[in-house]
Structure formats: C-alpha cells, structure tokens
Design a protein that fits this description.
167 residues; alpha/beta; disordered N terminus; 34% helix
Amino acid sequence: MKYKIGIVSVILFLSAFGLSTEEKEKLPDFKLADQKGKVFNSASAKGNTYFLLGCGFKDVVLCRKHGRKIYWKMQTLLKDEDHATFSAYLNLKNAPSAVYDYILQEKEKDYESILLDKKGILSNGLVEGRSFLRVYSPKGTLIHKEYFESVDDAKVSELYKLIRSGK
C-alpha cells in the first residue's frame, strides 16, 4: 500500500510542475535540398501550419501524386490570411544508385520541389507503400499525422480544417 501511495505522489508531483509523460512532438530540425539543389530549412516553416509529407525511396511516384493532390487542391481552399507551408520529402538513405539516376533524369521536368533526405533524418515513421503526412501548428507542435494509400478531395478538405482551426 505504501508503494502505491508513493507512485501516486510522484505522478501528482510531476503533473503539478507541468511535466507530462506525453510531450507534444515538435517539428524536427532539418535542412534538406530539393531535386534542383534549393535548400529548405525547417525553421522557416515556423509561424505557419506546416504540412510535411514523406515517403521511402521506393514510393517516389506515390509521394509526388499525394503531394500534388494535397498542395493543388489546398490552393483552391486557402485564403490570403491562411498561413501554410507544404513540403514533401523522400527518404534516400540506403537508396540504390538507380533511384538517384531516376531523380537526375526527372530533374529538368517542371515537377514540384521534393526534398531529398539522403541521411534518413526524417525516416522515422515511414511505411513502404504509403505516404506519411505530419501537420505541425504555427508553434511547431504536431497536430495531426496520418498514412495514405490514396488522397481524395474530401481528405484535403478535412486537412484544410486544420489550418482554419488555428491550432
């Protein structure tokens, strides 16, 4: 009995000082170049709702498809006062040279920017065959995460509500 009271006391003590066992996940600190060499720093996303979509190197086409759907549909919904930033990235850690060759061949096409994570900095949570979306608040805390096999207009409208909620 004495042991149980001690545990409850410790939990209450930590709660009183704002220490939580479930800390809010923060926006990872990263600096990555896209396929054309333009560098994006995660710190520049702060102050905006930040959509970070990632895929493994095997899912480059899937990532491009989902990223385009979210980004372009979102552009029809966004208003001037909405502050949102969008990035898609590929985890290229351990990618074979054929993947790099493909990216190099596609470089001259007018595709949207895709960040190339050559060291696997953002690889945590990625699942083969799905894109992984994380949405961060303007203060840099995670407010939503979800895996996609497909993305439709209804899903994008649902995601838009995250911007409007101002979390």
